[in-house]
Amino acid sequence: LPSQAFGSVENQNLIPMAELETVSYHNNVLEQRDLQSLRDGAWLTDLTIGFAFEYFEHEQFAAESSPGNGRLVFVAPSTVQLLALVSTGEEAAAVAAGLLSPAACRWVFLPLNDSDDLEHGLSGSHWALLVFDASRQTFFLLDSMPGAVLQRKAAHLSKVLAPLLGSPRAPLQVAPTPRQENSFDCGVYVVCLTEWIATHNSLSTDTAPAISPADVTAYRKHLRQLVVEIANRK
C-alpha cells in the first residue's frame, strides 16, 4: 500500500476534484457530501466506501469477483446495514439473494457502520471491516479503533450470514488490526484492509496487516485520484 492500481492523475485536461458536482459509477452516485468526505480530515461516507468496493469488483479484482460466483465478494455498505438489522436467516437470505455463493467464495468483505439507522448512512461515527474466510470457515472483525458496539453488530451479522455461507457454526474472531491515530480515518482503513487481504489472499491471526498511518494518508489521495479519473472517462 498505497495501491498502485489507482495510478496517478497527471493529465491537466481532466476536470479537477474541486469542480466535480456528482460522479456516477455502476450502482453508486457520489454527491457533494461524498466527494467532500475524501478530503483530508473527513469521515468517509457509505457511498464513498461503496464506490471503492464497486471499483474492486468491476475493475481491480474483476477476474475474481463475478457477481454470485466470485472468489472475492465485496458487499456494499448499504447492503451490510440491511443485513445487520434483520433478525432471521430467511430475511438475510432475501437481502443477500444472488450475492453469496458458498461453493465459490473465498473471502467476503463487509464494511460495518456503528449506526442503527437505515435511512441516514451518515448517522454513525465509526467503520470497521467484517471478513468471512471460507478456508477457515470463520468470520474476522478488523477494527482500527475497537469498540463494543461494532463487536455486537459483527456477532449478530455473523450469526445470520453463517448459514448462507454454508457454515452455520462459523465463529467470530477479532483479528489484529493496525490502529488509527485520529478520529476520522476508519473508513479509509476499511478500504485499505479490504484491498490488502484481497491482494495477499491471507489474514494472520497473530500479526496485523502491514498498513501504516502514512499509507492510509496516501491511500486517501489515491481514492481522490480514482474518483477524478473515473469522472473524466468518456
Layout of strands and helices, then pairs:
Blueprint: E1 23-25, E2 28-30, H1 32-36, H2 46-60, E3 72-74, H3 77-85, H4 89-95, E4 107-113, E5 127-133, E6 138-142, H5 148-161, E7 172-174, H6 186-200, H7 213-231
Parallel strand pairs: 3-4, 6-7
Antiparallel strand pairs: 1-2, 4-5, 5-6
Helix pairs in contact: 2-6, 3-5
Would you mind describing this structure in some detail?
This protein has helices spanning 32-36, 46-60, 77-85, 89-95, 148-161, 186-200, 213-231; strands spanning 23-25, 28-30, 72-74, 107-113, 127-133, 138-142, 172-174. The strands form 2 sheets. Strands 3-4-5-6-7 form a 5-stranded mixed beta sheet, with helices on both faces. It has a two-stranded antiparallel sheet with strand order 1-2. With 234 residues, it is of the alpha/beta class. It is globular. It has 7 helices and 7 strands; from the N terminus they run E-E-H-H-E-H-H-E-E-E-H-E-H-H. Mean pLDDT is 88; it is low at 4-12.
Total DSSP E strands? 7
Query: Ranges with pLDDT <50 over ≥5 residues?
Result: 4-12
Return Rg in Å. Answer: 17 Å
State the end-to-end distance. Answer: 29 Å
Oligomer: single chain
What does this entry show, briefly?
Helix content is 36%, strand content 13%.
What key phrases describe this protein's structure?
234 residues, alpha/beta, 7 strands, two-stranded antiparallel sheet, 5-stranded mixed sheet
